[in-house]
Specification:
The protein has about 250 residues and is an alpha/beta fold. The protein is about 45% helix and about 15% strand. It is built from 7 helices and 7 strands. The chain has a 7-stranded parallel β-sheet, sandwiched between helices. Helix 1 (about 20-30) packs across helix 7, helix 3 runs parallel beside helix 4 (about 110-135) and helix 4 (about 110-135) packs parallel to helix 5 (about 155-175). The structure holds NADP nicotinamide-adenine-dinucleotide phosphate. It comes from Sphingomonas abietis. Pfam families: adh_short_C2. Keywords: Oxidoreductase.
Length: about 250
């Protein structure tokens, strides 16, 4: 992706940054001149992702973090600030799909796991990012929801519940800080070609493509482009939205 923005001198943080949409967004921030903090729970894959960025001449650090643990989310933000002095932009991206099936087959443990990462993880990261942004007097945050935050579909109640929750968190937090030069928004990706989708079989993919009107999977870079726009001054009047980036999935 060609850099469109000039984020030179700014600091960006991305969670779930080892691969997929998170890595594409970390790269896009770096290519736009930002210093980037990449967070993920697997140290080895995270180190490989950061090595890609630094080999290309960008400034980036790896911070291992399980976003579902508030103390780790707090330590992540503290490490970002200790290293780069501030935090201007954050993309809270880490998420898991969990098992698919009717709600009657879902387990308490599965429900808790999905909500711990997808909902509590966003809350914990966003809370500590906002504490820092309030101190420094500004910033922009984008949370990762999904088409699953906007519509219901069979066989994925826990995942869609967590992604609907992300939009609730986003709207409330956006209003908490609306007058503080901080904007909080969310993106709602459609079905994107990333490792998360590897478990989707041929029949299910066909069904998804019938709904994703553009007729193809999305690319991780297309979500990154939306995140960077929401973080940019071009979106200065935009707050509390859940922006569909879904090839028309939720239009009909
Ligand atoms: P992905 O390829 O599976 O990447 C997700 C990354 O998040 C992985 O590196 C994963 O690490 C990390 N992660 C998971 N739990 C974590 C935790 N507790 N703490 C820190 N990192 C954690 O997924 P993706 O497709 O890029 O998805 C990124 C986001 O977009 C997710 O929130 C997802 O729900 C959302 N989304 C994706 C799609 C899609 O079609 N791909 C559609 C709508 C929304 P591990 O290897 O340790 O799990």
């Amino acid at each position: 992706m060609q850099p469109i923005y000039d984020f030179t001198g700014k600091v960006a943080l991305v969670t779930g940054a080892s691969r997929g949409i998170g890595l594409a967004t970390a790269k896009a921030f770096a290519e736009s001149g930002a210093s980037v903090v990449l967070a993920d729970r697997d140290e080895a894959t995270l180190a490989a992702a950061v090595a890609q960025l630094t080999a290309a001449g960008h400034t980036a650090i790896a911070v291992p973090c399980d976003v579902a643990v508030e103390a780790q989310a707090q330590a992540l933000v503290e490490r970002a600030v200790a290293t780069f002095g501030r935090l201007d932009m954050a993309y809270n991206n880490a998420g898991i799909l969990g098992p698919w099936g009717p709600v009657t087959d879902e387990t308490e443990a599965g429900f808790d796991d999905v909500h711990a990462v997808n909902l509590k993880g966003i809350w914990a990261c966003m809370k500590h990012e906002l504490i820092q942004m309030e101190k420094q007097g500004g910033g922009a945050i984008v949370n990762c929801s999904s088409l699953g935050g906007l519509v219901g579909l069979p066989n994925r109640a826990a995942y869609h519940s967590s992604k609907h929750g992300v939009l609730g968190l986003t709207k409330c937090a956006a209003l908490d800080v609306a007058t503080k030069n901080i904007r909080v928004n969310a993106v709602c990706p459609g079905t994107i070609d990333t490792p998360m989708g590897d478990g989707i079989d041929e029949a299910m993919l066909k069904e998804i493509m019938r709904e994703q009107s553009i007729g193809r999977l999305g690319r991780a870079e297309e979500i990154a482009a939306a995140v960077l726009w929401l973080c940019s001054d071009g979106a200065s009047l935009v707050l509390g939205v859940g922006l569909p980036v879904d090839g028309g999935f939720t239009v009909h």
